[in-house]
Amino acid sequence: xxxxxxxxxxxxxxxxxxxxxxxxxxxxxxxxxxxxxxxxxxxxxxxxxxxxxxxxxxxxxxxxxxxxxxxxxxxxxxxxxxxxxxxxxxxxxxxxxxxxxxxxxxxxxxxxxxxxxxxxxxxxxxxxxxxxxxxxxxxxxxxxxxxxxxxxxxx
Amino acid sequence: xxxxxxxxxxxxxxxxxxxxxxxxxxxxxxxxxxxxxxxxxxxxxxxxxxxxxxxxxxxxxxxxxxxxxxxxxxxxxxxxxxxxxxxxxxxxxxxxxxxxxxxxxxxxxxxxxxxxxxxxxxxxxxxxxxxxxxxxxxxxxxxxxxxxxxxxxxxxxxxxxxxxxxxxxxxxxxxxxxxxxxxxxxxxxxxxxxxxxxxxxxxxxxxxxxxxxxxxxxxxxxxxxxxxxxxxxxxxxxxxxxxxxxxxxxxxxxxxxxxxxxxxxxxxxxxxxxxxxxxxxxxxxxxxxxxxxxxxxxxxxxxxxxxxxxxxxxxxxxxxxxxxxxxxxxxxxxxxxxxxxxxxxxxxxxxxxxxxxxx
Lengths: 155, 359
Ligand code: SF4
Description:
The complex is a heterodimer. Helices cover 32% and strands 14% of the residues of chain A.
């Protein structure tokens, strides 16, 4: 991945996080970390999204919302699970309303560890996601039926 | 009379970092009614208290909300300490106060940024968050965590701050305060901010009181309730008056928070100057038997942690009432009769913390 043809836009959705990871995702966009200088913009519109960043685990009420947003994002798309909540349910995994990490309902490509995940690791996760995105884009150019483009890569 | 239409707002919406859903009933451009529905972030973490030992639950309590995490942990600890009659050393009280006020600074700056973003004032958003990093640096240096601190424990605090660091924190506050004054000037006097906020989303004082508004939402409507006045931790030994504004609009609520930034700085200064030497924790033996309502002032208002123990390691019941939940009825009231375009500003003006609210 030497350079990208298009600036990747991210969309952030708070599934059922405690806010700790959310504000760290936002902190990445603001002056100290400032990923916007690389053209990474946080958009509110799934139709403009390349990278879907999810924090927090899945519960009864938000599973349909997460699935719906995921379905609205055009291919190729990459999902990044930020924080241990999004990865496995984390500290809340024994709660009655938590079904587990977001990979229970949508395929996840990159897992970012931490509780709360540090901005540095979130940025690292997004950079890894860029590689996955580029790979998926390449695969889409191949003749239909040769490879499964939806299959993600675990890191 | 024109036809009524219903517009959904959320749970995923560009101005909201967190999911809350509102059904807005509109007549032309005017909102006649707002019907909130919640539950998108509900985890049910109160039940975890029966599965964890009471000293461990502090970490869960902190993860009720990542923004005011320290205050959650502290309020829970205070509850347990009261049940068990633990005398927390003075130095720990002061350290808790210092960290609480730093949390308030970071929370208010975060909110001011989001509020500016909600009005479309991107530049101001970035500037608020730039200043916020200064606060996070202090929190990280003294507790080890940026947003989840984990430095409070039943019986005191886990870490001490060395005298040299306290000195430096004190001297660092001066340049920081100057930066905040610049920000405050924009929030209080800039034309674009005033246009978007003055006279928008009015909550009259009697309604605010009747509907149970707490924190800056209440204080922006002249309800002078501030839990810090009860003197928990070291607040009883420090000097301050709650900030109150009387107009009850978005501008007042914003002004309360802007002015509270300086109250917090002042409180930190006083606390650092007065902090006594000594132990930072006491050994806690035995198990809690009894119940207690522990209250404290979060950046968003009054927080209540109810804990009930039965003499075993596991608490039988925990109940957390967070300020955002009590501020939802006032929010619904504020939105009646507002313009659709003002909805984001009004929703943000109560500083909604959904993660906290739904636990
Ligand atoms: S991983 Fe930790 S900090 Fe992040 S949302 Fe979950 S509980 Fe909060």
